[in-house]
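// run 5 | inverse folding | seed 20
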């Protein structure tokens, strides 16, 4: 990637961090008191994400490898994973900065078509694992919590929506999604003309991307399920964050309860995907989730606060990494 484009991503991320710091919905003295209360659990929560991002990077890495020797080192994929998520967390609607950044950085190593297809595949896998996690959590809730009529209806709706989403994702994996997505955009106001021009100019490239997406599911099922398994494992590992934070306040909480809290919170927060860092939605989700499991809602608010601080720390790390380790890729070297 050219330095001018990299600097645009960097300045955008830095600007978003400044805005978040200036709009933090809490007095800084009160915030520091809450962080002191966390003690050693706060570094533990931040360190936990070293391993979660490792699983995310590994999931993307095996898609890129394609069962062959990788043309890009793993540390590079790890860096792009952290920086890409940082840009996504900092932007409204998500996926507005991280994915173009990853494609542009990866292109010199594997070419534009492969970079685009691998990023699309990983994003699909990342979102797909969300639905698998929520679907799994429906049955986990039924197994460990009493279910009345109201909860049963809610769980039924969530389970049905997850099944529908899983079905459409599997269809997308079998047939590709790039061309279909852009054809849908041709019916959307404001972007329809751009989408039509893009399809007309890039149809061959789009069909090649779809072929690579379909090939992963049809011919390399072991890679497909290994990548999905790593993403799902990252979801489960991420529940340790809630467990660590709640142990600051109480010892009367189980890891299973933390899985359910994280599932409900992530579902609630993703309904407000248009908010940068899901401001407000995440805290509200934690409060509702803990209250629904007979845990004090105040614990949920505190959990949301510590999670927000951890996100901010990793956004700063990710934005800084944009300027680090930007060597020249294999394809660029051949030119």
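// decoded
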């Amino acid at each position: 990637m050219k330095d001018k484009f990299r600097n645009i991503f960097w300045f955008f991320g830095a600007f978003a961090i400044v805005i978040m710091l200036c709009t933090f919905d809490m007095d800084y003295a009160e915030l520091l008191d809450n962080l002191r209360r966390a003690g050693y659990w706060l570094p533990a929560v931040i360190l936990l994400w070293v391993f979660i991002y490792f699983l995310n990077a590994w999931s993307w890495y095996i898609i890129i490898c394609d069962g062959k020797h990788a043309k890009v080192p793993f540390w590079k994929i790890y860096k792009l994973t952290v920086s890409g998520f940082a840009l996504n967390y900092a932007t409204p609607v998500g996926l507005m900065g991280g994915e173009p950044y990853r494609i542009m950085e990866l292109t010199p190593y594997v070419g534009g078509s492969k970079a685009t297809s691998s990023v699309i595949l990983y994003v699909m896998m990342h979102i797909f694992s969300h639905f698998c996690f929520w679907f799994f959590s429906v049955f986990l809730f039924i197994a460990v919590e009493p279910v009345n009529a109201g909860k049963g209806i809610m769980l039924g709706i969530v389970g049905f929506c997850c099944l529908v989403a899983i079905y459409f994702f599997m269809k997308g994996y079998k047939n590709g999604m790039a061309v279909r997505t852009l054809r849908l955009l041709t019916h959307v106001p404001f972007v329809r003309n751009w989408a039509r021009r893009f399809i007309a100019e890039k149809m061959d490239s789009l069909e090649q991307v779809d072929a690579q997406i379909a090939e992963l599911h049809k011919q390399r099922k072991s890679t497909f399920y290994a990548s999905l398994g790593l993403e799902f494992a990252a979801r489960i590992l991420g529940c340790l964050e809630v467990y660590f934070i709640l142990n600051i306040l109480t010892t009367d909480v189980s890891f299973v309860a933390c899985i359910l809290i994280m599932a409900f919170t992530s579902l609630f927060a993703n309904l407000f995907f248009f908010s940068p860092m899901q401001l407000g939605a995440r805290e509200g989700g934690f409060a509702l989730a803990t209250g629904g499991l007979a845990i004090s809602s105040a614990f949920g608010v505190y959990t949301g606060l510590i999670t927000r601080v951890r996100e901010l720390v990793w956004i700063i790390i990710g934005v800084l990494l944009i300027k680090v380790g930007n060597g020249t890729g294999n394809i660029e070297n051949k030119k």
